Amino acid sequence: MRLKISAKPLLTMACHCTGCQRMSASAYSLSAAIPSDGFEIMQGEPVIGGLHGASRHYFCPHCMSWMFTQPEELDWFVNLRPTMLDEPGWFTPFIETWTSEKLPWATTPAVHSYEALPAFEEYEGLVAEFGETANLPP
């Protein structure tokens, strides 16, 4: 699989929900919210897996790594697993979600923490703050 990202992330995050813990086989999953018009599959065809709810989780057909998620009813962005990129070193989670389900020892450098998800009306401010403060690749 080869992906092309031509837009900067709107937001980066770590999710501590038990679903993400299981699908990532880790304490939390990492995501970068990429505008859909800046995300392209260049090579290969991902497979859908990890079904729960209406969100679509896509995996590499070769190694079955969790690559990205198309959130339910939010087709204007894709949640990309940044470790799937050739150069993931720039990634730092800006927010962490579902801390109510996190493992007791799990920590992140996230600036903002939420017991569940941020309220819908908070996202605009979070995206603006992230855009002003994040150290993103050119």
How does this model look, in words?
The protein is of the alpha+beta class. The protein has a single domain, classed as glutathione-dependent formaldehyde- activating enzyme (gfa) (Alpha-Beta Complex), CATH 3.90.1590.10. Helix content is 13%, strand content 30%. It is built from two helices and ten strands, in the order ββαββββββββα.
Indicate the structural class: alpha+beta
Radius of gyration: 14 Å
Overall mean confidence score, pLDDT? 92
The number of helical elements comes to 2
**Sheet of most strands:** 8 strands, mixed
The total count of strands amounts to 10
**Widest sheet: strand ordering:** 5-6-7-8-3-2-9-10
Percentage of residues in helical conformation: 10-25%
Our estimate of the beta-strand percent is 25-35%
Q: Uncertain segments of ≥5 residues (pLDDT<50)? A: none
Can you name the CATH architecture?
A: Alpha-Beta Complex
How far from one another are the termini? 23 Å
Question: What is the number of independent domains?
Answer: 1
Short recap of the structure:
With 138 residues, the protein is α+β, with helices and mostly antiparallel strands. Helix content is 13%, strand content 30%.
Could you outline the blueprint of secondary structure elements for this entry?
Layout (H helix, E strand, L loop, with lengths): L1 E4 L5 E5 L2 H7 L4 E7 L3 E5 L3 E3 L6 E4 L6 E5 L6 E4 L14 E3 L14 E2 L9 H11 L5
